[in-house]
Amino acid sequence: MDAIDNLVGGFATALTPGHLLLAALGVLLGTAIGVLPGIGPAMAVALLLPVTYGLEPTGAFIMFAGIYYGGMFGGSTTSILLNTPGESAAVVAAIDGNPMARAGRGAQALAAAAIGHFVGGIIGTVLLVLLAPTVAKLAVDIGAPDFFAIMVLAFIAVTSVLGASRVRGFASLLIGLAVGLVGLDEMTGQQRLTFGSLHLADGVDVVVVAVALFAVGESLWVAAHLRRKPHRPIPVGRPWLGREDWRRSWKPWLRGPLIGFPFGAVPAGGAEIPTFLSYVTEKRLSKHRDQFGKGAIEGVAGPEATSSASAAGTLVSMLTLGLPTTAVAAVMLAAFQQYGIQPGPLLFERESALVWALIASLFVGLCLLLVLNLPLAPVWAKLLRIPRPYLYAGILFFASVGAYAVNGDVFDLLLMFVIGLLGFVMRRYGLPVLPAIIAVILGPAAEQQMRRALQLSDGSLTGLVNTPFSVAVYAVVVLLLAWPLVRRLVRRAPAERSRADA
């Protein structure tokens, strides 16, 4: 009951006119900046951090919460309409959202994403209120072998369900892992694949890779086929979800938060792994598996609800442990310290009013996000009517701005176009782009967790499987790898039996 009473007090603070205005401003800014390729919510919060110096702490964090959720939805918008994610958590939305948009169902994909964000965020924030101390306590017990097992599961899952063949999926994964190796080894300080360039010493930024492979690669691919295929404006279609869309979406909307929230709350988690796992789960459970990758609405609804719930989960470890699990949480942690506030176990006691106002503002921000963006879905979808030469020229412009804004270095622009050419070649030979992105995002972290686990076990490989949790995860990995073979044998047995009877 204490949590409910505190939340009611938080709503009393968050619903004041000034704080409502800041929440609405945060949602609008987050959505607008999230739409720009490469400029995600973390960069938006970082850029706006100096602007909030004059604000009192509660108002500043209410605005940050709006930017966080708005940025995540904005990234999904460009993923769906232009196959260009605004941030890494929006990568999965492109797999089925973009084919839906090309088929004239962009408004339905955006509506499914908006409602998914709302449902996932509401459920995630309710769980944040009820389970924050318990989840944080459990998260502390997860060790390096468990983290590595989860990342291996993400690698195998994403390469098993994408692309024309598993071989091509694993080839794409290896390309991403190679790019992820570029830079200084964190443990030894040795340079790897830098070719003597100081610009590569810090590695290749994930934003540059994602924007290059998606935005630049897609633009070059479209440009290469413009003369062969005459431009026909993509129809916008009807603006609202039909009965069949609702029937296929409501279960993924409810399943997504159950995957997203725990992963978001785990230190070193984030929205990338759970969104991939949500996509795999929906494909396994759906009756329309053949539509996945071609425009299945479940492939948008589930991961988007997962992403939003994961965003609420990241606040658990940030507020209760002082451990940021995403870039946005890290920037918000810096903002807390800017105001002389230290997140941790005592935060709920020392800054109770601020924390509960922040949590209440998450509910307010989600409602504002739905109210603002659901009616705008048909308007966003009309972006597809812009002639492709102008549209992709604009994408390249904003992609260049996003890549340059990461470090303010011209070298990042050159690197973006080089990796963009790689993305073009991958499309030419049928290699899926997503496994490469996953490998770049998770590869370095997986390497660090593996090496820590091996150090703890004095180099013994048993150190990777010495916990019940890691064993359970590896069992799922084996099942994913063996399932196609088992299914083939099961199908072949009745056929051979019928032949023998004949």
TrEMBL record:
Pfam families: TctA (PF01970). Residues 20-438 form the DUF112 domain. InterPro entries: DUF112_TM. Keywords: Membrane, Transmembrane, Transmembrane helix. The keyword Transmembrane helix applies. The keyword Transmembrane helix applies. The chain crosses the membrane at residues 20-49, 109-136, 142-162, 167-184, 204-224, 315-336, 356-377, 389-407, 413-442, 463-486. PANTHER family: TRICARBOXYLIC TRANSPORT PROTEIN. This is Tripartite tricarboxylate transporter permease. It comes from Saccharothrix syringae. The lineage of its organism: Bacteria, Bacillati, Actinomycetota, Actinomycetes, Pseudonocardiales.
